Amino acid sequence: MSSNMASSGVAPSTQTQIDTLNSLLRGELSAVETYEIALGRLEEASASRSTLQLCRDSHQRRADLVAMEVQRVGGEPSAKSGPWGALMKIVEMGAAAFGEKLAIAALEEGEDKGLRDYREATHGLTGPTRTLLVRDVLPLQELTHRKMSQLKESYS
After folding, report:
1. CATH number of domain containing 122
2. How far apart are the first and last CA of the chain?
3. Is the residue at 3 inside a domain?
4. Element counts in the chain: helices (H) and strands (E)
5. CA-based angle 133:136:74, to the nearest 5?
6. 94 HSE (CA, 13 A, CB side)
7. C-alpha neighbours within 13 Å on the C-beta side of residue 74
8. What is the pTM of this model?
9. What is d(CA 114, CA 120) in angstroms, rounded to the nearest whole number?
10. CA 70, CA 1: separation in Å to the nearest integer?
């Protein structure tokens, strides 16, 4: 029996799937937090507000979908955020100290990373989990990536 199975009681391939999904989930939780910070720093009248709200809501929907999939395959969903942490600091400082343009650029960079993460994850997953990511989650990530790229372009 492998150490993964011995320690968690879950088959290694299932554990790998859970680990991959939880990594994606942590990214989604971080994205939601980052968008919340950015929205808190924007002027109420900002033209960017509706796009940021749409992206935040989309990330929350993805977090919910991925968390449900972690549970479906027998895992415990991560409750803590992940790799957007450094971007959160840039957004937090950027919007206040350097303006909206820098915060938008940092958010767009986070969307780039999220898109790469999902595309990479789909190569290592199979069955219903891969189908969920390809059919339901990845298109949402592609949409928020596109929205933030367009918003970033509008500041150029």
Report:
1. 1.20.1260.10
2. 56
3. no
4. 7, 0
5. 50
6. 19
7. 11
8. 0.85
9. 10
10. 22
Domain count, the chain: 1
What pLDDT, in 10s, does the model give residues 50-84? 999 999 999 999 999 999 999 999 999 999 886 55
Cβ neighbours for 43, distance < 8 A, ≥ 6 positions apart: none
**Which sign, positive or negative, has the C-alpha torsion 125, 143, 62, 35?**
positive
Residue in this structure with the two tokens 């949402």, named with its chain if needed: 140
Give the Cα separation of 63 and 26 in Å (integer). 8
Domain of residue 91, residue span: 12-154
pLDDT above 70: residue 45: yes
The answer to whether 69 touches 24, Cβ cutoff 8 Å, is no
Residue 74 sits at φ, ψ, to 5 deg, of: 100, 15
Q: Are 14 and 73 spatial neighbours (Cβ–Cβ below 8 Å)?
A: yes
Return the C-alpha torsion angle 25, 31, 36, 38, nearest 10. 170
- Does residue 70 form part of some domain? yes
**CA angle 79–80–83, rounded 5-degree value:** 140
Over its C-alpha atoms, the chain yields an Rg (Å, rounded) of 17
Q: Are 39 and 49 in contact (CB under 8 A)?
A: yes
